[in-house]
Amino acid sequence: SHLISLYNKRKDWLDPELNLRVVQSELTYLVNRRHRYAKGIQLENVSQFDFITPASSVSCPCLCVAGQNNLTYLDNIGYAGTRQFQAGCELLGSESSSKEVVTLTGPKSTINMMNQIPDEISKLCLKFLHEKQL
């Protein structure tokens, strides 16, 4: 029942194969958590990472890609995904600094889109690299 509960958390928006991989990762995380805590190991709090300093000094071409379903999901659970993505993109220089911002749409435009639509993302990246002559 515990495994079913983990699987059911994401079954509405992940395909079965990817959901199984996510359940496996979550189970590994949960099993190892006690060992990490006993040793005083804590995962880094992402909100405390200084993203602004390194991001604002980027001067090379940048491709910022988000999935609309992911942004919407994060907005709906209170994480302000759309605002966070826009703010992150703005930190990476101006539009004149060869920055391209793309928001993918469709049912697989989730946080796991690298696994769900790898061909589409690969084509997008290759096109960007070709256009920037990189």
Secondary-structure blueprint of this entry?
Blueprint: H1 2-8, H2 16-38, H3 52-56, E1 62-67, H4 68-76, H5 81-91, E2 99-104, H6 113-116, H7 118-131
Parallel strand pairs: 1-2
Descriptive labels:
mainly alpha, two-stranded parallel ribbon, 2 strands
Account of the protein in words:
This protein is mainly α and 134 residues long. It is built from seven helices and two strands. It has a two-stranded parallel ribbon. Helix 4 crosses helix 5. The longest helix has 23 residues. The radius of gyration is 18 Å and the shape is globular.
Would you summarize the structure shown here?
The chain has 134 residues and is mainly alpha-helical.
Main sheet specs: 2 strands, parallel
- Count helical runs: 7
Strand order of the largest sheet: 1-2
Could you give the count of β-strands?
Answer: 2
Q: Tell me the series of helices and strands, N- to C-terminal.
A: HHHEHHEHH
Q: Could you tell me the radius of gyration in angstroms?
A: 18 Å
Assign a percent range to the helix content.
40-55%
Percentage of β-strand residues: 5-15%
Low-confidence stretches: none
Shape: globular
Structural class from helices and strands? mainly alpha
- The mean pLDDT is 86
Termini separation (Å)?
50 Å
